[in-house]
Every structure is written in structure tokens, then in C-alpha cells.
Design brief:
The protein folds into 2 domains: about 50 residues, no CATH class; about 90 residues, SH3 type barrels, CATH 2.30.30. A hairpin with a 2-residue loop joins strand 6 and strand 7. By secondary structure, it is an alpha+beta fold. It has a 7-stranded mixed β-sheet with strand order 3-2-1-7-6-5-4, with helices on one face. Helix 3 packs across helix 4.
């Protein structure tokens, strides 16, 4: 089997990398780990001391059955040393609450039909209509709704080019796009 010039170069480069890795692992005294091993001119001394304090706090908090140098323990110790609480961190992948539909417990109490419809038209604005391969969506006051979802007890029943229809207990309400708002298709 004849190897091409390109394959020979690749194999030579691979051999050099493997030899370097083996030399690095077998070299005596190269197993120093931690912030002191990484301390160089790029890491400020004040930060290195703070990091070492956090790591030593994490090592003291680790259980005897669990290794003290796990990343989770080091981060936890560093957070404790700096007085950080991870419980109040917002989930970066969760959409804002105003984008989500309300639950049944949050729905307003039913009242006179016409009064609720009038309040919906007065208090809510249709901002945009989105048309996509998965169906249409309407953005009403910064909340994205699809057909079947509810807003103030009214169910979104249809989406047109420039309007949406919401219904509750036989009462139908139409919200129109304001001039200059974005519709799904322009004429």
C-alpha cells in the first residue's frame, strides 16, 4: 500500500504530536496543579490570592468520600468566599413571563361579557403578526400567542394578515394592527 505525500505528512505530524504528549506526561515535576502552577505574568497576584482562598475554602468544605479538587467543589468554595448566592440567578433560556400564556389561576374573574370585551380592546394592542412554517403567531402587548392560547380569558381563534380574533363565551373581539405595525405579508 503506497501512501500519498499528503498522508505521509499527516502521519509525521501525528507522530510528533504523540511524542510531545508522551514527553509532557512523563517529564518529572510537570504534575503541578492549581493556581500556583498557573501563576504567571498574565494573572494578577491579588486575583491569584483570592482564588487560592476560595479553593482552600472549597477543599475544607468537601466531604471525605468526595475528592476535594472537583470543579463543582472549587466553584462552590469560590462562590462562598466571595459571598455569592446562586439561588437568585435567572435561567438564561427561559422566556420572559409576559411572553407565556397565563394560567387559569391568573385569569380575571368573569364579569359582564361586553364589558370584558371592551376592556380587552381598550387595554391591549396588536403589535405584530408573524407567519412561519409552523403556523402564524400574534404579538399582543409583548406576548406571543398562537391559535388556541388565551389572553385575559379570551382564546385566540384566528389570525389574518392585519387582524386577530379572540373569543370567550360567544363574544368575539377583533384586534387590528396599528398603522406601521408589521403584518405577515405586505401587499
Amino acid at each position: 500500500m503506497a501512501l500519498s505525500k499528503r498522508r505521509k505528512i499527516f502521519l509525521a505530524l501525528l507522530a510528533v504530536c504523540v511524542a510531545g504528549l508522551i514527553y509532557d506526561r512523563l517529564q518529572p515535576g510537570s504534575h503541578a496543579v492549581g493556581p500556583t502552577a498557573a501563576a504567571g505574568s498574565m494573572i494578577p497576584d491579588a486575583y491569584t490570592a483570592e482564588l487560592e482562598d476560595g479553593l482552600s475554602a472549597a477543599a475544607g468544605a468537601a466531604s471525605p468520600t468526595q475528592p476535594h479538587n472537583t470543579l463543582a467543589n472549587r466553584l462552590e468554595g469560590l462562590a462562598k468566599a466571595q459571598g455569592l448566592d446562586g439561588m437568585d440567578v435567572r435561567d438564561a433560556f427561559r422566556p420572559p413571563e409576559e411572553w407565556m400564556g397565563r394560567t387559569a389561576a391568573e385569569q380575571p374573574a368573569p364579569g359582564p361579557k361586553e364589558d370584558n370585551a371592551r376592556r380587552l380592546v381598550e387595554n391591549r394592542r396588536l403589535r405584530a403578526i408573524l407567519v412561519g412554517p409552523d403556523g402564524s403567531s400574534a404579538i399582543i402587548d409583548n406576548r406571543c400567542l398562537r391559535i388556541g392560547q388565551q389572553l385575559d380569558g379570551f382564546e385566540l381563534v384566528s389570525i389574518d394578515k392585519r387582524s386577530v380574533v379572540l373569543a370567550r363565551n360567544g363574544v368575539r373581539v377583533t384586534l387590528q394592527l396599528a398603522a406601521g405595525a408589521s403584518g405577515g405579508e405586505d401587499n
